Amino acid sequence: MNINEKPFIIAGPCSAESRQQTIETCCQLARTGRVDVLRAGVWKPRTKPGSFEGVGSVGLEWLAEVKQLTGLPVATEVATAKHVEQVLAHNIDVVWIGARTTVNPFSTQELADALRGTDVTVFVKNPMVPDVKLWQGAVERIINAGIRNVGLIHRGFSSYGSEFRNNPMWHVAIEMRRRMADIPMLCDPSHICGCRDKIESIINEANDLNYSGLMVECHANPDEALSDSEQQLTPEQFLEMLNRVLWRKQNFSSEKGAEALAMMRAEIDQIDSELITLLSRRMKISDRIGVVKRQNNVAILQSHRWNLIVERMLNQTDKLTLDGDFIVKLMEIIHLESIRRQTEIVNK
Ligand code: PEP
Ligand code: MN
């Protein structure tokens, strides 16, 4: 199992519900020949008490059987040291830390300590809240415990009134990948979507963004699933989806493509340098305006002037084939920074 090989696919039911359901679903998935790791949750962190909370460690026995039958590594979620102990006793190869656990540094440290010295592969899901540092901290705890195979799973962020069950907020995951560029990131479209119909478009988006692979929930009879019934695919539906995806390569395979890319990147680097030089000039002028405002006791924010700036920029966007919303957002950031600097100057 090489978690760096694209596309790396983890699939299986949300929960192990019975021996028969676990084996049937996992064997169907194994037969597709497209899955690297088979998953099933045995301890389920449920939002409300009284819902199905998993079958517990008997499910690990079913997973061990699945491993024997298919020859594939198996995975489950762990949230406590006790879970880790039981996982190790059943030779489970891969564990993931769920979104509700990643938020809690006490829990992630407890897991790191329990996993120390083992060769289990660990995937860390993003925390429920879009806090990159918290996610990074959890991963660092696992790495510091000497775990060599560590991966990330982007499953979206808890949100109220979003069209998704968990808002993907792609920019947060992209920032995490920038910070931990050597660690592969999988996308979990099932928990992002919460229903079947958007899963394929999320898979395509993850592919465009060069994700390493996927974790997808599949069930032999999704409608009868005891947890996350609406988002689970049949193994057959999942295979059909996978067959429609043309996985993007990390790099160009031809010299010519690589050369053209290198030239365009050099040009972009040059333009970026020019952009920040211009920004620096703009900020220095804005500082001088701050000095004049202080001398004359004039308010910093001048809404009319700000409106004129935005209007002037928007008049140029069409000709320059730039998106108006983008330009407004960019100008807002620049304007806020000017205000911040002038506030310091005026109150000095
Ligand atoms: C899961 O993968 O079954 C799960 C509970 O995921 P998450 O922690 O992303 O909600
Ligand atoms: Mn689930």
Molecular structure report:
This protein is an alpha/beta fold and 348 residues long. Helix content is 51%, strand content 11%. The protein is built from 13 helices and 10 strands. The protein has helices at residues 19-31, 58-70, 81-89, 99-102, 105-115, 132-144, 170-179, 189-193, 199-208, 235-244, 255-296, 303-317, 324-346; strands spanning 8-12, 37-39, 74-77, 94-97, 121-125, 150-154, 157-158, 166-167, 185-187, 213-217. The strands form 2 sheets. An 8-stranded parallel β-barrel has the order 1-2-3-4-5-6-9-10, surrounded by 4 helices. Helix 6 links the parallel strand 5 (121-125) and strand 6. The longest helix is centred in the last third of the chain and has 42 residues, at 255-296. The chain is elongated, with a radius of gyration of 25 Å. The model has no long low-confidence stretch (mean pLDDT 95). Bound molecules: phosphoenolpyruvate and manganese (II) ion. The site of phosphoenolpyruvate has 9 residues, from helix 4. Residues 14, 41, 77, 98-100, 125, 155, 191 line the site of phosphoenolpyruvate.
Mean pLDDT: 95
Our measurement of the CA-to-CA distance between the termini, rounded to an integer number of angstroms, reads 60 Å
Give the overall shape, derived from the CA principal axes.
elongated
Hetero groups in this structure are: phosphoenolpyruvate, manganese (II) ion
Query: Rg from C-alpha positions?
Result: 25 Å
Number of strands: 10
Main β-sheet description = 8 strands, parallel, barrel
Return the structural class.
alpha/beta
Q: Could you state the order of secondary-structure elements as H and E?
A: EHEHEHEHHEHEEEHEHHEHHHH
Number of helices: 13
Percent range of helical residues = 40-55%
